[in-house]
Design goal:
Elements: E1 7-11, H1 15-27, E2 31-34, E3 50-53, H2 68-76, E4 80-82, H3 87-91, E5 97-99, H4 103-130, E6 139-144, H5 147-158, H6 164-183, H7 188-197, H8 200-209, E7 218-224, E8 228-234, H9 242-251, H10 260-267, E9 272-276, E10 281-287
Parallel strand pairs: 1-2, 1-3, 3-4, 4-5
Antiparallel strand pairs: 6-7, 7-8, 8-10, 9-10
Helix pairs in contact: 1-4, 2-6, 4-5, 5-6, 6-10, 9-10
Length: about 300
């Protein structure tokens, strides 16, 4: 851990409790940052490894325009630790939301969640190293099965384009949707219930091991020209009503159930995004940077 400096967002409006949360997280070695507004903060720029929510915080409505704090948290896939009365509000924005009963249990739970997050992050970064040569190819085909593989490819591809932080988030949303909603058949309603029960990631792992799903993969075909990078993403699921979901994403309604990931992808640097057929295939594209640099 000596070479890794973990960071934490603290969402708390009460001054005294915020100080206590800072003391707890700094004892664990976190660099803590206070987010000053409802998912909008001018001083928060570093990806968090953990998010801690205190007693008093105004959770934005799920239809609200995305703030930079929400985008950073979603992009990093950081776990969110909150008190019970805030849980449902945060579940409409994030996947990994856990409840801590009070400050006396926060230290133990925070370290456990961070350790699991770090393992997944390390695996993702190791996967990136295995395919770094993608920056030199004109076309190719990739297959991925897991969330970590999806995130690794998104991280790698985003390095080819300007504003790569947001693009990485948009590609992650699309790749993860293909795995969990496409191949594994987890509906938006099922995912919301799993998130409420704290079993989302365990259910992903369980379904990946099932006979019906263990051989499924998402196919990604990439091509490039002098200015654009094109992606064709196809999962092996049954598809979905993409016309209705795109309408929701455009209108920013119903995000608690579906469409928020697609809406973020559309705002995250993709110049084209089009679903095909029954909804298990989509084509998207983004403009290349002058010189792609890898993270």
């Amino acid at each position: 851990m000596a070479d890794y400096h973990q960071s934490c967002f603290i969402l708390e409006n009460d001054t005294e409790n915020r100080k206590e949360l800072f003391r707890i997280m700094e004892r664990l070695g976190f660099h803590a940052q206070h987010c000053t507004g409802a998912f909008v903060c001018e001083t928060c720029h570093m990806e968090p490894d953990l998010v801690v929510v205190g007693q008093e915080y105004d959770v934005p409505d799920s239809r609200q325009v995305f703030g930079n704090v929400e985008l950073l948290i979603r992009e990093s896939q950081a776990p969110v630790l909150t008190l019970a009365h805030h849980k449902e509000g945060f579940l409409s924005h994030f996947d990994n939301v856990q409840v801590y009963p009070g400050n006396d249990m926060l230290e133990e739970m925070a370290w456990s969640l961070f350790s699991s997050h770090l393992k997944r992050r390390t695996l993702r970064n190791e996967l990136v190293k295995t395919v770094r040569g993608i920056q030199h190819i004109d076309e190719g085909e990739f297959h991925f099965k897991t969330l970590e593989e999806a995130q690794a490819l998104a991280l790698l591809l985003a390095a080819l384009a300007p504003h790569k932080k947001l693009l990485r988030l948009g590609l992650s949303e699309l790749f993860i949707n293909a795995v969990e909603h496409g191949n594994l058949g987890i509906t938006a309603e099922e995912k919301l219930k799993l998130k409420k029960d704290g079993g989302w990631l365990n259910e992903i792992d369980r379904r990946l091991a099932l006979k019906d799903h263990r051989d499924k993969f998402v196919r990604l075909i990439v091509k490039r020209d002098a200015e654009m990078f094109f992606l064709d993403i196809e999962d092996q699921g049954d598809g979905f009503n993409w016309q209705e979901t795109l309408e929701q994403a455009t209108a920013q309604v119903g995000f608690a159930k579906a469409g928020r990931g697609i809406a973020i992808a559309k705002k995250a640097g993709l110049d084209e995004l089009n679903f095909m057929g029954k909804g298990n295939q989509l084509q998207c594209a983004f403009r290349l940077a002058g010189e792609g640099t890898l993270l």
